[in-house]
Design goal:
0% strand; globular
């Protein structure tokens, strides 16, 4: 019995990972990136932070520094749903949905009608004072 529960749990985890990869693939494509880039470790994080979220490369570099990485990672984890919602033209309520119910709101973002906003003139700064990166001048 314990073995069948273990296989069931393993099957659920595999399905959840595949589901998440499909969603991230769609988000990358909506953001103007090739979907397969979400499959490459570290490179996907770099693209997610710099292109999808529109944050500077410094956030990714700081995330690689031992000791500082945990604070940067936590800031990105708690902050990225709101920033992602903003980059796709959604409001703060959708950001809370991404944060508290990601298995519901990420598919809505990936498969819904939301469009990625690359124009940083409309997204100059946010509530944390983090300056948007102009993707057209890198």
């Amino acid at each position: 019995m314990a073995e069948s529960m273990l296989y069931s749990l393993l099957g659920f985890i595999i399905i959840a990972v595949v589901f998440f990869l499909i969603i991230m693939w769609k988000v990358f494509v909506k953001a103007g990136l090739d979907g397969w880039k979400c499959l490459i470790p570290f490179y996907n994080a770099y693209l997610y932070i710099t292109h999808v979220l529109g944050m500077s490369k410094g956030w990714f570099i700081i995330m690689l520094i031992p000791g500082l990485s945990i604070f940067t990672y936590l800031m990105i984890v708690y902050y990225s749903p709101f920033r992602l919602a903003k980059r796709f033209g959604q409001g703060v309520g959708f950001g809370f949905g991404l944060f508290f119910l990601p298995m519901v709101f990420y598919p809505i973002l990936a498969f819904g009608a939301s469009e990625f906003i690359l124009n940083v003139a409309t997204l100059n700064t946010d509530d944390f004072g983090v300056k948007e990166v102009d993707q057209n001048h890198e």
